[in-house]
Protein 1
Amino acid sequence: MVSAPSGAGKTTLCREVRSLLPDLAYSVSYTTRTPRPGEAEGKDFHFVSEAVFNAMRDRGEFAEWAVVHGNLYGTATGPLERALAAGLDILLDIDTQGARQLRARYPEAVTIFVVAPSLAELEQRLRERQSDPPQEIARRLRRAREEMNTWREYDYLIVNRDLKDAVDQLATVIQAERCRISRLSVEFPDLGLP
C-alpha cells in the first residue's frame, strides 16, 4: 500500500513502478469524483455515482472506503482477494484512512508513505497540476498536514525529491519484500536448505 498527501506523487510513483515490475497487480479504486484530464475509466479509477458507490458499500463490496476531499473512495474486495489468492503482489494507491482499515484487515500488508521534500514543494505541485481551484488547494494542504502526522504508522518512508530516485526506491522496497523469508511459500530442494 502506498499512501501520501495529495500532490506528493504517489499516483505517478505507482504508475512508474508498474512499468518496471509488470508482474505487479494493481488495485483500481472506485471513486465518486469526476475524472481529471487524462484519467481513464478502469485504468486510473472506476468512476461511479454516489448512489452506485453507496449501494456497493451497503452490499459489503469494499475492503475499505473513505471520504477524501469530499469524495468517496473505496477498494473493492473481490479483485483484491482474487489477486491475493493467486499469490500476486498487489499495489494499492490509497489514502491514510483506507490504509488504516486495510492494515487492520491485512496485517501482513507492506505499507509505504510518500512525502514531498517540503510543504512549499507540495503546494507548488498542487498549483502546477492546475486541476483544482485555490480553495481546494488550501483544503488539500490542510489535509496534507494531518496525513503527514501518520507517517510513523508505515513500514517505509520515501521522500519524493526526484521522480527517478523515488521510483527506484519503491521498486527496491517491493523487490526486497518479495525476498523476505516470512513471505516465501516456495521450497528450494535443489539448494539443500532444510
Protein 2
Amino acid sequence: MAKLNLNRVEMPRQDPKLRGKNFKEVALGYSPEQAKEEVSRCIQCVKRNCVEGCPVGVDIPDFIKALRDANMPEAVRVLKSKNALPGICGRVCPQETQCEATCSLAKKGAPIAIGRLERFVADWERKNKGSLDQPELAKPSGKRVAVVGSGPAGLTAAAALAKLGHDVTIFEALHVAGGVLMYGIPEFRLPKEIVQGEVDFVASLGVKIELDSVVGKLVTIDELLKNGYHAVFLGTGAGLPMFLNIPGENLTGIYSANEFLTRVNLMKAYLFPEYDTPVKVGRRVAVIGGGNVAMDSARCALRLGADEVYIVYRRSEAEMPARREEVENAGEEGIQFKFLTNPKKFLGDEQKRVVGMECYEMELGEPDESGRRRPVVKPGSEFTIDVDEAIVALGTTPNPLIASTTPGLETSKKGTVVADEATGETKKGKVWAGGDIVTGAATVISAMGAGKLAAANIDKFLRG
C-alpha cells in the first residue's frame, strides 16, 4: 500500500502588509501543479465519508478523480450536478467543519483540501465557459414557482427546480441578485464577479430574476399564489441586525455590521469617490462580536484607513465561531483581539459622537445551551477603550416583513419561519422555506442544502 501523504498543499495568499491596504482577493488559488499535487493525496476510500459531510451531497471522490485524470469537463460536471455555486462554496464554506472534517485523512490531521480543489475547478470552468455543455433540463412541467430572495438558498432552489422543468421566477428586493453573497461578504474574500457568474449560470437555466421586487410590499405571498404560481419558496435570509441594547448605542459613529458591510460591498464605498457612497471610518475602531461577520467588518475598516482595529469578544479565542482561517488572516493583518471583554456602555462627546467604550472583563463559567462556557462579568473590572467608531456584529434575525404580510405562516419567538426540517414545508399550504429565514444566521452551504431539499419536495408536490 502506498504511503499516506500527510502534507497538505498550502494555498498562496497575498502578503499581509500589502493586502491590508487593498480589496483584492486574499487567497490566490492553486496553480495547476499545486492542484495536481493535492489531488494525488486522495486515497479514494470506499466509505466516502466526505460526501456525508457535505450539506449538498457533492460526489467529492468523483470530482477529485476526474481532476486527477486531468478531465476538467468531467470534474465540472460532477461538481455542478449537486452544487450550482461551486465558485462561492470553494471560497466561503467552512469545509474544515464539514466535508474535510469527515475525510479519512482528518484522523491524521491532514484532510484533503476539498474546498481549495472545488475553487480550482470552478475557476477553471469560469475561464473555459464556451467549451462546456449546458446541463440537461427536464421537459417543461407547465408549473410555475416563485422564489423569494436570491441568496444561496434561493439561487440553489431556483436552479434545482429549473433543471426539473419548472418555470421559475426569483423576486429579489435589492437592485442586484446574490443576497448576502453580494451585500455581506467583502470583495477580498468573495469577488463580486464570481457571484455574478454564478447568478448568470442560474439565469442560463431559464430562471427569470425580478430585481427591486420587495415581496410583502409590492406583492404578497397570497397574491403570488393567486396570480398563477403553484408553489412559493422563501429564501429571504436574516437581514435584521441584533444590538447590544446598552446605554449610548444611538451615538453617531456606531454601525450595525449589516449597514457597514452593505455600504462597503453592495454600494461600493471602498471605491469612493468613483462610487458616491459615504462611509465614515474612525481612527480607532471596535468591532463587537466573534463570528465571520465581525472578521469581515474589522478587515474592511482596516482597509478603509483605520489606524487601530479591535475585535471585542466576550468569550475566549477557543469559543469564537469565526472560521480559523479568517481569524488567522485578521491577526496577520494587524487586527487586535480583546478576548473576555464585553461592552457596558458607549461614551459620547458634546456632539453626541462616540469617543469611548466602557467594558467589563469577563470570565468563563459553566457551559450554556450552545455548549460553550457562559461568560460571566468579573466584579469591579470596568475599564475604558478609546474608540471613535464601533461596529456591532452580534448576528441577525429575519426581517419580519414576509411573516407580517402572510396569514397562516407560523414563526418562532426569534422571528424565524417554522418549517419542516425534512422537507422545508411551512405551516402555510404551497409555501416552503429554507436557509437563514428558518435557522437564523448560519452558513452559505447550509442555506444551499435547505434550498436543494425544499426544491426536491416542491417538485414532488407539483407532480402530485
Protein 3
Amino acid sequence: MTELGKKRALGFTACAVAGSLWGCGFFFGKIALAEMSFPYMVLYRFLFAMMPLLPLLITHRPGLNRREWGVLLAASFLGVPLQFLIQFHGLALTTVSHASLMVGTMPVILAVGATLFAHERMDAVGWMALAGSTTGAALIALGGKHHAGAGEATLAGDLLVVLSLMIALFWILFNKQLMERHSAIVVTAYGLLLGTLMLIVWVPVHYGMPPVTRVSVKAWLALAASGVLCTATTTLLWNWGMTQVPASQAGVLLNMEPLIGSLLGVFVLGERLGPSAWVGGVLILTAAVTLTTRSKTRVREQMPVT
C-alpha cells in the first residue's frame, strides 16, 4: 500500500470510529435528559468535553488571522450552541431510535452542501440517492405521533433533529476550509472552546443555573461519556479524518451513528420502531451508501474574477 493509500485508510478509520462514538451520543443524552432539561445537558456535555482538550490549548498556538477567527467563530456558533440545543431539544421530544435514524440523512445533506457550496456536481445516481433519502426521512418523521406521550416519537422531535443536521453541514464545511491551513487539533480545540464559552453565557441567562446536587451518579457518568467520548474524541477524529479523505466519501461513515444509535435504542432502552421507520431507515442507509460509493462527483471550475 502506498503512503497516500495508508493515509486514506487511516482517515476512513478515524471517521468510522467517530461515527460509531457519535452513535452513542443520543443514548447517553437520553439518560441525562431523564434528570435535567436539554440546555443543561448540552452545557455539561461540552464542559466535560473541554477537560481533555485543555492541554491542547496550551501546546498548540492557533495562528489564525482575523478572517479565519471570524470563520471559526461562525463555525463554533453553528456547530455547538445552535446545532446541539436544537438537536437535543428534538431528542427530548422523540426517541433515540428515531433521532438516530434521522441522522442517516446527513451524508446526503453533506453531498448536497458540497454541490452548492464546494463547486461539486452530482450525477443522476446521486440525485436518485437524494430522493431516496428524503423519502426515508419523511417515512420516519411521519411515523412519529404529533402528540405523543413520554418515551414516544414525535414529528416535531424528528424534524428538529433534521434541522440540526442542516446546521451541522455548515460547521463541517467551515472546519474543512480552516483545516486547509491549520491542524485538526487547533480547529477542534479552539472551535469547541469558543462554542462552550457561548453555552456558558447563554444557558444560565436564558434557562437559569444548571442543577448540581440533584443529579445522580448515573447521569454524571453519562454526561462525562457524552463529553469525552462523543464530543472531544469524535470531533478530533472526524476533523483529522476529513484532512485525509474527501467530505463526500467520508460521509458514508456517518451511517455508523444511526446504526449504533438505533441498536442502543431498541435493545438497551427497549424502544420500538414501527414498519414505516424500518423502511425509512433502510432507504436512508441505502441512499447514503449508494451516494458515497456509486455516485460520481466532479468539481466545477469557478469563473475567474475580473
Protein 4
Amino acid sequence: MPTSPNRTLGFLAAALASSFWGCGFFFGKIALAEMGVGSMVFYRFFFATLALLPLLLTHRPHFTASEWRTLLFASFLGVPIQFLVQFTGLAHTTVSHASLMVGTMPVILAVGATLFTIGGKKERLHLLGWTALVISTTGAALIALGAHHAKSSTGPSLFGDLLVVLSLIIALGWVLMNKSLLARHSAIVVTAYGMVSGAVMIAIIVPLAYGLPPVHGISLKAWAALAASGILCTATTTLLWNWGMTQVPASQAGILLNMEPLIGSLLGVLILHEQLGVLAYIGGAMILAAAITLTTQNPTQPADPALV
C-alpha cells in the first residue's frame, strides 16, 4: 500500500538540497583558479560517483527500455550539458552574480510544470504566476545589464550571466524528466544511475573537448573544494532533491531553490569579497520576490487532484 507524501519532510529535503547547491559556485570558483572548466566538472563528478557507487551495488534498476532512454537523455542534459555550460558561465562572471541568476530557477520550474506533463499530470499557472515570471525575468535582465559594464576581467559579465541562465533552462528538462521517473522508481535508483551515467558521459566528453584533466600541481585547497562540490553539492543534493520531488509538486518546491542564490551570493560577497552593483541588488530582490510570491501564494492549480 503506497504511503502518503510527507510534505514537511519533502520541503525540508528540498531546502537542504538548495542550501548545499548554494555552495557549488563557491567551491567551483576555488577549483577554477587552478584548472579549466572541463577538468573542474570532470573531478566534481568523479567524487560524486565515488559517493554514489555503494548505492549502485545495493539498488538494482528496473527501468523499461523507454525509461532507460529517458534516464540517459535526462542525464545528458542535466550533467555534461548543464554543468559545462553553467561553469563556463561562472568562469566569466562572479559567484554572487551567478548565484543571483539562479534565482530565476523557481519561476522557470513553475512555468515548465505548466507547459509539460509530469508523470501524466500537469499544473496550470494563473495570472499571478505569469506576473511573477515577468518580474523575475526583468530582475535577471537588470543583473545582466549591470554586469555588462564591468571593467575588470575578473568581474561579472553579460556573457557569463546569460550562460548561467541558459544552463537553468537546460536543467529544467532534467528536473521534469526525473520527476516522471520518480513516479515509478525510488529516488535512490533514479539519482544513482542518472548521476553515474552522466559522469560516464563527462569522462568521454571532457578529454575529447578539453584535454586530459591535470593530476599534478593541484593544491590541497582545490582538491578539497572539488571533493566537497562532488560529494556535498552533487551526490547529496541530488538525492535530497529527487526524494523531495516524490513528496511535493515541483512548482511548489521551487520556493526553496531560493536558498541557493541567497547562500551563493553571501559566500561571494563575504568570503570572496565580490561586489554587487545597485542594479544587481534590485534585480536580485525582484527575482526573490517573484519566486516567493509564485510559490507561497500557490498560483499554480494542479490538473490532477493527486498533486494537491
